[in-house]
Specification:
This protein has 13 helices and 18 strands. It is an alpha/beta fold and 498 residues long. It folds into four domains: 139 residues, Rossmann fold (3-Layer(aba) Sandwich), CATH 3.40.50; 103 residues, Beta-Lactamase, CATH 3.30.450; 80 residues, Helix Hairpins; 149 residues, Heat Shock Protein 90 (2-Layer Sandwich). The strands form four sheets. The protein has a six-stranded mixed beta sheet. Helix 9 runs antiparallel to helix 10, helix 11 runs parallel beside helix 12 and helix 12 packs antiparallel against helix 13.
Length: 498
């Protein structure tokens, strides 16, 4: 037979077979036995170890059937030094009565053996089928192990080099593994943290919360959780972390361990505290200034009013004009101080126990503004505004400032109030038909004391819209202005969680 012969049978599977036999008769019996199976065997025959090695240098077979004793040595030399690195399965043929010799070969990695008797060789196809099936298991297991090893190496690499802290916790909240970032964050050596309970490095104020979250996690009430918590470092100082924790299940679908990602937010927390402190100081300052300045301003306004009421007819025109200007500026200053006081108190009013009626708020706003619009045909119209879970005083301030601003620019035309609700998110819209807001001023119109180019000819303090923006931000929202179709402006306020 030629060195490479294809045994053609109905095609189900094609096997590339290297046959290493010193006896041509044995090789012939093997090829004859394999020819009766519905499998295509592409057979390459060689008679020595040297020829087998030469062929294997350039080819990888699906199967090798080799004689245990070849003219130039033992067939076991074809086995790899490490059975885990084998690229193909090997079946050995042995002389009758010498089966004990093949035990070492099986231990070294051979898949099976066949005695060189006519009956055994006639049934070699079954041995081949069994060996290939076993080899398939070996290959699949090896692929699984390789994938697992690659996954573990990838995780280990990410774990060790991540900029954020990473912690692996057992189901009793003990630390199993930490990465260098977490050790540096908490101020311990990695070895010092192993087997330490996570509660031990948690700030006392957060311990009950953390224990409850982990209990829910490991009882599968939740698959993960995210929180901000305070840790106690080895030196006793506190650090803040944004923590994301997930539970990993074992093969029995029970919690095996948890892995936590910890990001250092200490700087952010410090800046937030500074901002809160600054805002408290600023609010206190504004409150004090607005209160203290009103005290001397009240008698000034009172004295000017008294003079004008009792002596205006006796005064020269120039002096009367000056006194009216003093009165006007004094009243404007008094209004500005009232607005500053309102701005300072936004967010300090307790939330109501029930929804505040939008209809009720609207009636009060209509009573205040409808009589005071500049033209007889001017009017406020409203399609609908929602009930909201915010203090009534803040609801009134929102609409009062928005409608008041619109009335300054309504030019005798309608002011339109409307609202929208989408779940817990509410939008209030107030439209005027005035001159509009220039594009380059839209981003500044809600700044404190900013009047804009169109506001210099109308009364106002420049505080009303700033108050609207502060109320919106108190409820995680925003206020902005858009151009209205056909002219004018639409002032929009969005509030969340109301």
């Amino acid at each position: 037979m030629d060195p490479a012969t294809e045994i053609n049978m109905p095609r189900q599977m094609q096997i590339n077979l290297l046959l290493v036999q010193g006896s041509a008769a044995v090789a012939g019996l093997i090829t004859d036995a394999l020819a009766v199976k519905e499998t295509v065997y592409i057979v390459t025959e060689v008679a020595s170890i040297a020829d087998a090695r030469a062929w294997l240098d350039d080819n990888t077979p699906d199967l090798v059937i080799a004689d245990l004793n070849l003219p130039d040595g033992r067939g076991t030399v074809l086995l790899p030094f490490d059975r885990g690195s084998a690229h193909f399965p090997i079946i050995f043929t042995v002389d009758p009565g010498n089966e004990v010799d093949v035990v070492g070969a099986i231990k070294a990695g051979a898949m099976d053996y066949v005695s060189k008797t006519p009956d055994a060789l006639a049934n070699i196809a079954k041995t081949v089928e069994r060996a290939l099936q076993q080899w398939g298991y070996v290959v699949r297991q090896r692929l699984t192990e390789d994938a697992l090893r690659e996954s573990e190496e990838r995780f280990r690499s990410i774990f060790q080099t991540a900029a954020a802290g990473m912690v692996v916790l057992s189901t009793n909240k003990n630390i199993v593994q930490v990465n260098p970032s977490f050790a540096a964050f908490i101020g311990y050596e990695e070895a010092e943290l192993l087997n330490r309970n996570m509660v031990e490095i948690t700030h006392p104020d957060d311990r009950d919360k953390v224990i409850s979250m982990y209990d829910d996690l490991f009882s599968l009430k939740s698959g993960s959780f995210v929180c901000e918590r305070c840790y106690v470092r080895k030196d006793g100082t506190s650090v803040w972390g944004h923590v994301s924790v997930a539970c990993v299940l074992g093969g029995d679908s029970r919690p095996a361990y948890a892995i936590a990602l910890v990001q250092d937010i200490s700087l952010r927390k410090e800046l937030e505290e500074q901002l809160l402190r600054t805002n408290r100081e600023l609010d206190a300052f504004v409150h004090t200034v607005s209160h203290d300045l009103r005290s001397p301003l009240t008698p000034v306004i009172g004295y000017v009013q008294f003079i004008l009421e009792h002596y205006e007819s006796d005064l020269p025109d120039a002096l009367k004009e000056m006194l009216h200007e003093v009165l006007s500026q004094g009243e404007r200053m008094h209004l500005m101080l009232e607005d500053l006081l309102t701005l300072a108190t936004v967010g300090k009013v307790e939330s109501p126990a029930q929804l505040v009626s939008g209809d009720e708020v609207l009636r009060e706003v209509m009573m205040r503004f409808s009589p005071g619009l500049p033209e007889e045909d001017a009017a406020i119209v409203c399609s609908w505004i929602p009930d909201m879970m915010i203090p009534k005083t803040l609801y009134l301030q929102l609409l009062d400032n928005l409608v008041g601003n619109a009335s300054n620019y309504a030019a005798g035309k309608q002011i339109e109030i409307s609202g929208q609700r989408n779940g817990s998110i509410v939008r209030l819209m107030v439209r005027d038909h005035g001159c509009g807001v220039p594009d380059d001023e839209k981003s500044r119109i809600f700044e404190l004391f900013y009047r804009g180019s169109t506001g210099r000819s109308v009364s106002g303090t420049g505080i009303g819209l700033a108050t609207v923006q502060k109320i919106a931000r108190t409820y995680n929202g925003l206020a902005w202005v858009e151009d209205a179709p056909g002219g004018g402006s639409i002032f929009i306020v969005e509030l969340k969680g109301v």
